[in-house]
Design a protein that fits this description.
This protein is mostly helical. It is about 45% helix and about 0% strand. The chain has helices at about 1-10, 10-30, 40-45, 55-70, 75-80, 90-100, 100-115, 125-135, 140-150, 165, 170-185, 205-210, 245-260, 270-280, 325-335, 340-355, 375-385, 390-400, 430-440, 500, 520-525, 530-535, 545-550, 555-565, 575-580, 590-605, 605-610; strands at about 155, 215-220, 285-290, 425, 610. The longest helix is centred in the N-terminal third of the chain and has 19 residues, at about 10-30.
Length: about 600
């Protein structure tokens, strides 16, 4: 009996995943039918039984903004109109996920989470974004992406995943803090100087034991001769010598003294400069040295000076062989199938983006006092995510094809339950810029400056779907004059740009974009440079809207399409009556001024500025 129980416990994750797979496949085969019930809906209705679906046009616009960070095109709206009323939006969701815009938009979100900065010393512009967005575009499993970052080594051009460490100078303490928050939702920073006051039994030594996983590396962006003493000798920068075992530390110090005596001290200044120039690294480079460790600091109230033995975030001590890559050991533990917390942390982030509420908050702090809302749904999504090999596109598709994603907005000011109703979300900076670009006739914007800097001086035949992306992903560029997508703007977004005005963060902390409404944002949309230029150019002789009028010879038809461009609907009866009073010319005469006024008014409407 005990043997049977042990076997069940050992393979419980495989058995549970197999059960989920059977139910999921059953749903995948039947969901094209009108009466197919999404498994997520059944669980959600236990939590909130009175969910009502939104109008399909509202959901379509929501889907496009969530998946691609841009409003649908007029052509896509026309495709929606042609779709039978009983057919779901699943085909559109699949198409959106395969487009480069998905990887560009979600790549921006992920690099914000990873605090990426597009530019740096000896770092090719946009290289880390290209790596992350490219991974999303290829639908790379999430655990593989994390494994690649945690075990990366080499220079940033050939191995851009190394930017995960180089971002913080490969500092093991800083890395440990962010790894804990990013991938495990555990804030350990308080234990850097003393035992953690809020996590039971997490001591200062535990903090250093976690950081020890990331101590076998260092980075250089200046002059460095990695093989000065041969490939087998433990050569590290002088400031890290103390973290070598005592024998290796002494051997290295002797070698350095000997080399300095025989070479450096005898050279002229010119010879020294030649040596440094010869060994100057072309790109910032992360080096791996297996003998490096991390010594516990000496303090008045605790002994120290020893090399700390690594310990995982769950408190278990790692069993490692001498010289083993501790980063690989940590990555294997973190992404192990038995570690559902790793998966649930990213599921919670994705769910929050799409659904507007979280299973737990803060997103990076799942502690002993955390109350998990909808835990049964979270467990179900974890099983689905695991069954689908941790592919984020599959997870997103599963969520957005449910009725609960399509839930309606509240019509009552007294009932604002975000679980029952979809809460309107203001367009983030990327969604806004991308949508303004889509509205423009040129599909490009040449100047995204808003602030004055003078004072600063300075697809559908078979299931499961192949969600691998098609087309090329745009990345940040140096000295770009025209922008076709917000992903081409360097991050952190320069202070003067519309992205910065609308909350694109400084990339100092995890996902530090700002969502609060400001007076500056309202003024920017009313009389800023970007909207002003867009409105001023709208309706010019060579513009698409003028060509549209030349074909239809009807201002009412052009105005109707303008509403479709921005809001995805026809003007209401009340709006049509109001527009009639503004039409000073016959319907068959092109009125550029009227179109520009309407465009400005629609851009400044709450309906355009929100995801509903």
């Amino acid at each position: 009996m005990r043997l049977v129980l042990n076997l069940v416990l050992k393979f419980r994750f495989i058995l549970f995943s197999f059960v989920v797979l059977i139910f999921s496949l059953g749903y995948l085969q039947s969901r094209s039918k009108q009466n197919a019930v999404h498994p997520l809906d059944s669980l959600y209705l236990k939590l909130s039984p009175n969910v009502v679906k939104a109008d399909r046009k509202i959901t379509f616009r929501r889907l496009s903004l969530h998946l691609r960070g841009v409003i649908p095109s007029v052509a896509e709206w026309k495709e929606l109109e042609a779709l039978p009323a009983d057919q779901s939006l699943e085909s559109f969701a699949v198409s959106f996920l395969k487009q480069p815009e998905f990887a560009e938009y979600w790549g921006t979100k992920f690099t914000s989470m990873l605090r990426d900065k597009s530019k740096g010393r000896k770092i090719p512009t946009g290289k880390f974004f290209e790596y992350v967005a490219g991974s999303l575009h290829k639908n790379k499993p999430y655990d593989q992406l994390v494994q690649e970052m945690l075990t990366s080594t080499g220079n940033v051009k050939e191995s851009p995943a190394t930017m995960f460490y180089i971002r913080d100078g490969a500092d093991p303490l800083q890395t440990a803090e962010y790894v804990g928050r990013l991938f495990y939702a555990k804030r350990v920073a308080c234990a850097r100087c003393h035992d953690h006051p809020y996590i039971s039994d997490f001591t200062r030594r535990d903090y250093y034991a976690l950081a020890a996983f990331f101590s076998q590396q260092f980075f250089r962006d200046g002059s460095w001769e990695a093989d000065r003493y041969g490939k087998t000798f433990s050569y590290v920068p002088r400031e890290l010598e103390v973290h070598l075992p005592m024998e290796d530390q002494k051997n290295l110090q002797d070698k350095n003294n000997e080399w300095n005596r025989d070479n450096w001290n005898k050279w002229t200044d010119e010879q020294r400069k030649d040596y440094q120039k010869k060994h100057e690294v072309e790109y910032a480079t992360l080096y791996y040295q297996p003998k490096l460790g991390l010594r516990f600091p000496h303090t008045d109230d605790a002994p120290g000076g020893d090399l700390v033995r690594p310990k995982y975030l769950d408190g278990k001590e790692a069993k490692l062989k001498p010289g083993e890559d501790r980063r690989k050991a940590f990555a294997d533990w973190l992404t192990n199938k038995s570690n559902d917390r790793f998966r649930k942390v990213i599921i919670n982030r994705v769910w929050t983006e799409l659904m507007g509420w979280s299973f737990f908050t803060p997103l990076d702090d799942w502690n002993e006092d955390t109350v998990v809302t909808g835990e049964e749904i979270l467990n179900h999504l974890d099983s689905y995510f695991l069954t689908n090999n941790l592919k984020l596109k599959e997870l997103i598709l599963y969520i957005v094809t449910s009725n609960v994603y399509n839930r309606s907005l509240t019509k009552s000011t007294s009932d604002q339950d975000p679980i029952r109703y979809f809460s309107p979300q203001r367009l983030d900076s990327d969604q806004l810029l991308n949508s303004l670009i889509r509205v423009s006739d040129s599909q490009k914007i040449s100047n995204i400056r808003e602030r004055n800097l003078s004072w600063l001086s300075g697809l559908m035949d078979k299931r499961p779907y192949d969600l691998t992306g098609t087309g090329s992903v745009r990345i940040p560029q140096d000295n770009l004059k025209e922008f076709s997508n917000a992903s081409e703007v360097e991050r952190p977004a320069p202070y003067h740009t519309i992205l910065s005005v609308f909350g694109s963060g400084p990339r100092v902390d995890i996902s530090d974009d700002i969502s609060e409404l400001t007076i500056e944002q309202m003024l920017t949309l009313m009389n800023g440079r970007v909207v002003g230029k867009l409105v001023w150019d709208f309706g010019n002789k060579e513009s698409l809207v003028k060509q549209e009028f030349d074909q239809t010879k009807s201002m009412n038809a052009v105005i109707s399409n303008l509403y479709f461009r921005l809001l995805g609907r026809e003007p209401s009866l009340g709006e049509k009556e109001k527009i009639k009073t503004l039409m000073l010319k016959p319907d068959t005469v092109f009125d550029k001024d009227l179109l520009q006024d309407l465009l400005w008014a629609l851009i400044n409407s709450q309906e355009f500025q929100h995801i509903n």
